[in-house]
Amino acid sequence: xxxxxxxxxxxxxxxxxxxxxxxVDDGKRLSLTESELRDALQYSNTPGMAPMLEFLEGLxxxxxxxxxxxxxxxxxTTGSQEALSxxxxxxxxxxxxxxxxxxxYAGTLALMRPIGCNLMGVRCDGEGMVPEDLEKALxxxxxxxxxxxxxxxxxxxxxxxxxxxxxxxxxxxxxx
Length: 176
Fold this sequence. Notes:
By secondary structure, the protein is of the alpha/beta class. Helices cover 36% and strands 15% of the residues.
């Protein structure tokens, strides 16, 4: 006679909403039906809701000419910090060298420092990472027999500086 509350799906008939409608700045109205709203409020599979994943996979196929038969997948996160955490977990290990904007986002430092990687700051100016300083950092790494594992830079609205790189600056960084 015991009812387990340890896990499972809430009874969707108890959700207090029947529909939801939004109006965006341009006057367009978006609405969710009762069925769509129940799906949105309910727990979903860990990777995300199937229709959303299908849409995002289709977008990758169209925009980046990726074929679903290739070895790739979409990863949906709840925000930028979770996405950053997943990328760092996947790419960075102890003693890896990571080149970062100087200054860089405190959340990035909080993720990377406990790993034990070597953070190497690359000076930024009003347009973000300075290409000549990136070249110097790479030369220093090379002379010490180190190959950086990751370059972490935020070219648009960099935090904490607020800088945004011009297209010309981005091209210089990409070429390096």
